[in-house]
Structures
1.
Amino acid sequence: MTSTKNDDNNILHVSRLDFGNPPYPTCKKTTTFPFQIFNLPYLQSVFFFNCFTITNPNLVSNSSFASSSTLQQLSLRSNPALTGPIPPEISHLKSLKILTLSQNRLSGTIPEEIFSLTNLVHLDLSYNMLTGSVSDQLGNLKNLVGLDLSYNMIRNTIPSTIGQLGLLQKLDLSSNLLTGGIPSTIGKLNSLNPMSMNFLPLELGKLVRLQELRLADSGYSGTIPESFSQLKNLTTLSLQNKKLTGEIPRGFGGLPHIYHLNLSRNFLGGIVPFNASFLNRLGRNLDLSGNLGLCLSSSEAYSVKIGVTICGRNKINGGSDDLKQPLMSSHAPPFGNKFFLPSGFGVLVLHQMLFLLV
């Protein structure tokens, strides 16, 4: 608990409540949500981490959210007994800047009322069981810097109004049931940095400020867009487990800042278009394993192991399988919550990255 002083009356008032996350007080197994806290006139931040493990706090059955006009941050994270829909009454918290409801068991659709919280900077609803579509009202959140809706069951397409989020830097929509293409308006998000989605839209090639792009483990099938070679600030690219076909764009070898490239476990083919200098620079941060159609030119065969065979050689005709060994670890640092969001939404350590507070 944190207090702040009222200069007029020299009185201390509660401005922050934090439970469940050491060194702050932990919660009992039978903890219930104390809705009375919203009557505290100076309250700005509320955190409940791993508190509601047995008893459902029944957020939907209470309208006390309307009582607080000062609350700027609400974080209810990792609460397995927090089930049911997101209460539309949260929209009464008009001063909210950070809303984290990740790693719970929330279900139902995202209430449209959430998108009336125009002061929101970070919104993390990841790791729940949310369904339905994302409303076109998403475009109302003009101040949004971080959005994490990953690991839910959200369906249909991403609304084109996402292009109105001009300040957005972190976007994670991965591990949902989204269909269709990414709207072309995403090319307007010039501030976007790390991304994690389940698609390979050509428009991503326009996001020249991107430093981290992680699009692994989705059902997308197709070729890698040549436009990805234009992402000159890219440091990490993860496209593993995506059923990708075709060849690796030759322009990837010219990405000046890339240090982690994972294209493993796809259906890529052809000759690896990287020279010895590129291969040695990335070293074990390059993983091309699990692409049976790929091979490495014999002139580069002395380089580091990248998970492919030498062109024209295999174990049957006496060739070495020395280059077929997968990397011990090829994962980039996970997004922290995340943001931080979490949610992590969670997030990577980048120069221009902002994380959601949890």
Note: The helical segments are 276-282.
2.
Amino acid sequence: MVLEFVHHCSYDCVFVYSLLVCSLFQALQSSTIYNITASRPLIQNQTLVSPCKIFELGFFGPNGSEKQYVGIWYKNTTFSKVVWVANRDKPLGHKDQSASLIIGGDGNLKLLDGRKNAIWSTNVMAKSNYSAAVLLDFGNLVLQDGNANKMWESFDEPTDTLLPNMKIGVNVKTGKKKYLISWKGEDDPSPGSFVLGVTSETPPQLFAWNGSSPYWRSGQWDKSKFNGIPTMSNKYLSGHQLVQNINQGTTYYFRNYYNNSFGYVSSHRKDL
């Protein structure tokens, strides 16, 4: 289902509803693991799955591409949208069957190619290699220390998809920004031209760019909806949240988890 407020905006942010229930999940296969540890890496033909098997993470090649990536997608659904990609800038060769996702000696989650070169890493200050990576039922990949404290999460590094409880926004004090950036093409998850973010003005609004050119804006947030989207009726209000803290310098937009839905930025210009 495409959300109606997007339908009338003529822009590239397409929101799709996908309802999921644990009772529909398939039986566990031998190629499935539930965490990545120093002694249990993720290798080719394996997937890391969330507890209720809603999401899974593994190696993939989009649309027959000769390049390989590590990503997260919905499990057991007909809509096989990849919602997050680790190495979108540094693909593996399709013939590299020895690549693996490991917990390194420094405690970081790392993607190694067949020659043991680090292609991607969480790159945090981990205290030991007793850390583990788990995939949560919200689609969040989390690196935990030995006491299950969160050290890193994929929700802090979104790609093109906004999952429930994932935030996009800006911290003007630190300069940190979280954007959704489209894929370059259907078989190329590297950063494309379209970017969706949140402005730091008061009141804030969603803003999309095509390269450096403004492409679309939602209108300012009136504490319940965006005033530039007249078709945004009450049926949307329970899911959309935009929180601005002037003292902390933060502005974030997110959707709550009560609806198992997601939004993504497409690389294709469409008049929806």
Note: The radius of gyration is 19 Å.
